[in-house]
């Protein structure tokens, strides 16, 4: 009896050692190839014990009916069925970006009915939650306490999947006013030196962000990236200019620029995503339409 227990323990240790050296897991066939000296029955029993104890986990393979065995990376949830643990592990792995319901179905191989039943149980236990990403009605799942990535929520300037345009407009106005004040101060301090007046009128985005924080004009904690997004709006509206080194300066009302420099595409922060026929395209760009009517 003792000998059998020792052999079983040795088999489990061998399986764990093999899986430890393959962090992405192995198919059953690959595991067999790497444990050729192990009895088939002993290997099967070792795998079952390790699965039951939560030391390893089973994930769907790349082909129908196939599966992958690997060391458990995620959390072992109490009183969960194999299907519940499987889906929970996939959702946990997805992190802040979440996982689409279609990907869950494809990776688990579960039927639509079975998958939805499991997701409902996990949601009722407040282990996972579903959200709808900006620009789509499809559901995305993530852990219940996880804060969704900005690529899903739209970031600071979105509320209930809608862009808070008034909030953006107000912040843009404050940023422009700050840059105008900075420019006036620079011109007043360097009346006899146009070059210096121009140079000291430029401001870094970090300075604008610091100004917004110190004034307490916004309850939301805005990052420098958030402020740069707002400055991009003011830039496209023609209220400010941005130098090659990334510094900003207010433009005066009487200043004019040549038509090519006014093209919004030059300054657009999402230019790379803009393509004809896509969600972001020249056809539905209000800045592009305005420029064409210049």
Plain-language structure description:
- With 294 residues, the chain is mainly α.
- It folds into 4 domains: 1-72, Winged helix-like DNA-binding domain superfamily/Winged helix DNA-binding domain (Arc Repressor Mutant, subunit A); 75-154, Winged helix-like DNA-binding domain superfamily/Winged helix DNA-binding domain (Arc Repressor Mutant, subunit A), CATH 1.10.10; 163-250, Orthogonal Bundle (Arc Repressor Mutant, subunit A); 259-293, no CATH class.
- Helices cover 50% and strands 12% of the residues.
- The protein contains 14 helices and 10 strands.
- The protein has helices spanning 2-20, 28-34, 40-53, 82-94, 101-108, 112-124, 150-153, 165-189, 194-199, 205-215, 224-236, 259-262, 264-267, 286-292; strands at residues 26-27, 56-60, 67-71, 99-100, 128-132, 139-143, 158-159, 162-163, 240-242, 248-250.
- The longest helix is centred in the middle third of the chain and has 25 residues, at 165-189.
Q: Which of globular, elongated, flat, extended, rod-shaped describes the shape?
A: elongated
Number of domains: 4
- What radius of gyration results from the CA coordinates? 29 Å
Approximately how much helix is present in the residues?
A: 40-55%
Largest sheet: 3 strands, antiparallel
Protein name: DNA-directed RNA polymerase III subunit RPC6
Function: DNA-dependent RNA polymerase catalyzes the transcription of DNA into RNA using the four ribonucleoside triphosphates as substrates. Specific peripheric component of RNA polymerase III which synthesizes small RNAs, such as 5S rRNA and tRNAs.
Keywords: DNA-directed RNA polymerase, Nucleus, Transcription
Family: Belongs to the eukaryotic RPC34/RPC39 RNA polymerase subunit family.
């Amino acid at each position: 009896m003792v000998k059998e227990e020792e052999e079983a323990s040795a088999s489990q240790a061998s399986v764990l050692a093999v899986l430890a050296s393959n962090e992405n897991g192995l198919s059953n066939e690959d595991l067999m190839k790497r444990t050729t000296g192990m009895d088939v029955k002993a290997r099967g029993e070792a795998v079952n014990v390790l699965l039951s104890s939560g030391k390893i986990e089973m994930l769907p393979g790349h082909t129908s009916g196939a599966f992958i065995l690997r060391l458990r990376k995620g959390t072992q949830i109490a009183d969960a069925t194999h299907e519940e643990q499987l889906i929970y592990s996939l959702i946990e792995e997805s992190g802040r970006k979440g996982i689409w319901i279609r990907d869950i179905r494809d990776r688990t191989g579960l039927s639509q009915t079975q998958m939805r039943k499991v997701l409902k149980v996990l949601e009722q236990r407040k282990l996972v939650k579903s959200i709808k990403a900006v620009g789509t009605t499809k559901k995305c799942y993530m852990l219940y306490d996880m804060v969704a990535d900005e690529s899903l929520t739209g970031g600071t300037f979105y509320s209930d999947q809608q862009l808070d345009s008034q909030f953006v407009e107000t912040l843009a106005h404050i940023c422009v006013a700050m840059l105008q004040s900075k420019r006036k101060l620079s011109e007043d301090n360097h009346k006899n030196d146009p070059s210096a007046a121009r140079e000291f009128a430029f401001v870094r985005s970090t300075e604008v962000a610091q100004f917004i924080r110190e004034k307490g004009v916004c309850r939301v904690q805005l990052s420098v990236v958030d402020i740069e997004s707002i400055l991009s709006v003011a830039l496209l509206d023609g209220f400010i200019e941005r130098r090659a080194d990334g510094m900003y300066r207010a433009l005066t009302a009487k200043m004019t620029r040549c038509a090519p420099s006014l093209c919004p595409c030059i300054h657009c922060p999402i230019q790379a995503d803009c393509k004809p026929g896509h969600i972001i395209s020249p056809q539905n760009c209000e800045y592009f339409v305005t420029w064409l009517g210049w």
